[in-house]
Amino acid sequence: MVVIDPSSPVPPFEQLRAQLARQIQDHTLAVGTRLPTIRRLAADLGLAVNTVGRAYRELEEAGLIETRGPAGSFVSAAGEKGRERARHAAADYAAVIASVGIDANEAIRIVQAALNKGIAVSPAAPEPKEA
């Protein structure tokens, strides 16, 4: 079940994308599961069609779902590639942290802050701007 919090600072498309990604990764949504159509899910959640479409596009770009034309969108077997990408990114991050001399506790706080802000959640997210 997906729940969109209209009072959240996280945009609705990102709430939807993150919840579906989590359900795919924890196998709540099994490989091969057919997802609702974009229009149907938009109507069910009270969202704009473009909002749901963006979430689906990002999930497809991440390899978590695949669209089979008029047959619809399905949970992809390639979803494990996302975990592998995350493992590689973590190894790269650990190497950077070691090279600049930041301790592990601070490195974890940096990641936690990025995740809490939604920065690291979407590979297509732009770099944050300094205020």
Task: List the topology elements.
Blueprint: H1 12-25, H2 38-45, H3 49-61, E1 65-67, E2 73-75, H4 80-100, H5 104-117
Antiparallel strand pairs: 1-2
Question: Could you please describe the fold and organization of this structure?
Answer:
The chain has 131 residues and is mainly alpha-helical. Mean pLDDT is 87; it is low at 120-131. Helix content is 53%, strand content 5%. It has two domains: 12-78, Winged helix-like DNA-binding domain superfamily/Winged helix DNA-binding domain (Arc Repressor Mutant, subunit A); 81-117, no CATH class. The protein has a two-stranded antiparallel ribbon. Helix 1 (12-25) crosses helix 3 and helix 2 crosses helix 3. The longest helix is centred in the C-terminal third of the chain and has 21 residues, at 80-100. It has helices at residues 12-25, 38-45, 49-61, 80-100, 104-117; strands at residues 65-67, 73-75. It contains five helices and two strands.
Q: Tell me the name of the CATH class of the largest domain.
A: Mainly Alpha
User: Which strands sit side by side, in order, in the main sheet?
Assistant: 1-2
Radius of gyration: 16 Å
Average of pLDDT: 87
- Count of folded domains: 2
CATH superfamily of the largest domain: Winged helix-like DNA-binding domain superfamily/Winged helix DNA-binding domain
CATH architecture name of the largest domain: Orthogonal Bundle
In the predicted model, the low-confidence regions spanning at least 5 consecutive residues are 120-131
What is the CA–CA distance across the termini? 36 Å
Total DSSP helices: 5
Provide the CATH topology of the largest domain.
Answer: Arc Repressor Mutant, subunit A
- Helix/strand order, N-terminal first: HHHEEHH
The share of residues in helices is 40-55%
**Helix/strand class:** mainly alpha
3D shape: globular
